[in-house]
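User: Okay, second chain of the day. Same drill as before: sequence in, structure tokens out.
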Amino acid sequence: MKKDQFIFGLYPVLEALQAKAPVDKIFLNQQSEASRFHEILQLAQAQNVTVNSVPQEKLDKLTRSNHQGIVAYLSPIQFTDLDTLVASVLEQSKSPLLLILDQITDARNFGAIIRTAECTGVDGIIILKKGGAPVSADTVKTSAGAIFNIPVCKVDHIKDALYYLQGSGFKVLGASEKTTNSYFDADLTGAMGLVLGSEDKGISKSIIPLLDGLISLPMVGKTKSLNVSVACGALLFEAVRQRGI
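Assistant: Same drill. Structure tokens below.
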């Protein structure tokens, strides 16, 4: 973390939450008494801010100052609620396209995906609150500022987001090298969500049965898979071609 990305201390964090600053997550000393941070925890829960219980050593690494057992990570952007995002994109378009990222952990991959998504007309990006790359300075830089021009939504569980999208009329497809269904043959028009999995494991096994289908990029070389941001680019530009954008 860079110094301009976090605040520390009981009252600075409390004031940030009261002012509804873009607090992304809070790191709390696991040995501290929860009652000391009662108001902070209440506000964090109300604002859907993730609170992580961590060892004292982690907080000491983040700042050498007197952190009082609490450090808050500030996001450079404001996140959008899922229901707000879905309602907004359906109002603006009959064929919105949303990108769902299942535990993309590399900030530069994340930034590159955001850049491509914004360039190809993606209407919003859905990510996990925990387990994915943070919206950091590296993410902003790699996205070339595109992150400020596309809505980003954080959810507790990808499964719940998929149910909500499908219930709202979206078809949801997942990108995976474990299928022979070429993305050239897939219908990428209409209201659609596209799921991309983590760099090492791909889409979570528990999510695959919930999808409306899997698609893959034909591979003719000896290398069996592509970098996730490169694969994302190929898929999104095929969507652009099919949609006639």
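The longest strand covers residues 23-29.

User: Thanks, on to the next one.
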